[in-house]
Design brief:
alpha/beta; 5-stranded parallel β-sheet; single chain; 11 helices; 378 residues
Length: 378
């Protein structure tokens, strides 16, 4: 009887703990801030699908601690001001104490101090600027950071592509682009490479021919384009039009490129958090389930969204509560296998995990796709 009483008390305490953070109808509210429209909508739509798949699986299995999960999504269009407005709405009107988003670093940094001040757990799926987690210990991310992938890009160009002379074209007003090029240059030159040309452009530019003319004259072995897929598609077309056939290398902002570019991005390589041709059983199941639900194979942003929700689920279960501080503490202790690799967090709440390099290739039907090239460990 004494043992039975203790069990009943434990169950009662668990029910009280999980009552915190419920939405109307008894569900656990997860806020989501994504660019669902605008220039980088590809990222937000993919991540949202990954989160939706994770939540569907969680709810089919009985929820978290018996509670169903509800995602309330807001569109920030990749704009920092709109991201702040979305965060205010999610945390004040919808009472969310856990928020996933945004997808790029500027909008995420814009809400991180608010999240820290309010004690809201903020999980950034793909915001890779190191400053994202500087606001404090309620801020986590699922992706690796720019210094790591910029370094991987430089090492890959020098070692795997045997490049001796590199050119870089980057967006001078974009912290993501600036940080990547700095770390690429550092890694490439440390391995004996020479920077043949370093050219810049401004946000909104669409004509890169003046910079490309200088790059062509420098005769590089490789061109590094640390930018989002929409700019990369434009730049690559103009590079090839000027007769530059050398490999081009980039970073995770290229995810989505294959659906938004043509053959000009062939002989292109980029660092990523995920490859959908992995033979790991958990990844293969994720790819099958995602394709069955949405009709397409998932990219890195879908996988990062899925992992973001999976990390939150595991932290709530480990904490036995949806209290934000308890979830924060449980997240910090996680060390486990996820879709984008084994994840544990360093003291700045950045995941310690490997990067993959993908090559843009033509698939069996002639459409562009990616193929796994190599893995680089941290």
């Amino acid at each position: 009887m004494k043992k039975l009483a203790m069990i009943l008390v434990s169950l009662s305490l668990a029910a009280v703990a999980f009552a915190a953070g419920k939405a109307d109808g008894g569900a656990i509210t997860i806020g989501g801030i994504f660019p669902l429209s605008g220039p980088v909508a590809e990222y937000g739509l993919e991540a949202q699908k990954g989160i939706q798949l994770a939540i569907e699986e969680i709810n089919k299995a009985g929820g978290i601690g018996g509670q169903q999960v509800v995602l309330i999504s807001e569109d920030d269009e990749g704009d920092a001001t709109k991201s702040v407005n979305a965060f205010i709405k999610l945390t004040s009107k919808d009472k969310a104490k856990i928020v996933i988003g945004s997808l790029t670093s500027g909008p995420t940094i814009a809400v991180s101090e608010r999240a820290q001040a309010q004690g809201v757990v903020l999980m950034a799926p793909a915001a890779s600027n190191p400053a994202v987690t500087d606001a404090g210990n309620f801020i986590f991310r699922t992706c690796f950071i720019d210094p790591f992938q910029g370094t991987v890009g430089g090492q890959f160009a020098a070692q795997s592509l045997s490049a001796k002379r590199a050119a870089v074209l980057y967006e001078v007003s974009n912290d993501y682009s600036v940080g990547l090029q700095e770390n690429f240059v550092k890694a490439f030159t440390a391995l004996g490479g020479t920077m043949a040309a370093v050219e810049v452009y401004n946000t909104g530019d669409t004509d890169f021919n003046a910079q490309i003319t200088k790059i062509k004259a420098a005769n590089p072995d490789v061109v590094y384009l640390p930018e989002y897929y929409n700019d990369v598609a434009l730049i690559a077309k103009q590079l090839r039009a000027q007769g530059i056939t050398t490999p081009i290398v980039g970073a995770d902002g290229w995810d989505g490129l294959t659906g938004n570019a043509g053959d000009e991005v062939l002989n292109g390589f980029y660092t990523s958090n995920f490859t959908n041709d992995s033979t790991e059983p958990n990844v293969m199941k994720f790819v099958r389930d995602f394709q069955a639900k949405f009709g397409d194979k998932p990219g890195a942003f879908a996988a990062l969204g899925y992992d973001s929700m999976s990390l939150i689920k595991d932290a709530i279960l480990a904490a036995g509560s949806t209290d934000a501080a308890a979830v924060r503490d449980a997240l910090a202790k996680i060390n486990g296998s996820y879709i984008t690799g084994n994840i544990k967090f360093d003291p700045k709440r950045n995941p310690v995990k490997s990067a993959v390099v993908l090559e843009v290739v033509k698939g069996a039907g002639g459409s562009l796709t990616t193929a796994y090239k190599t893995t680089v460990n941290p």
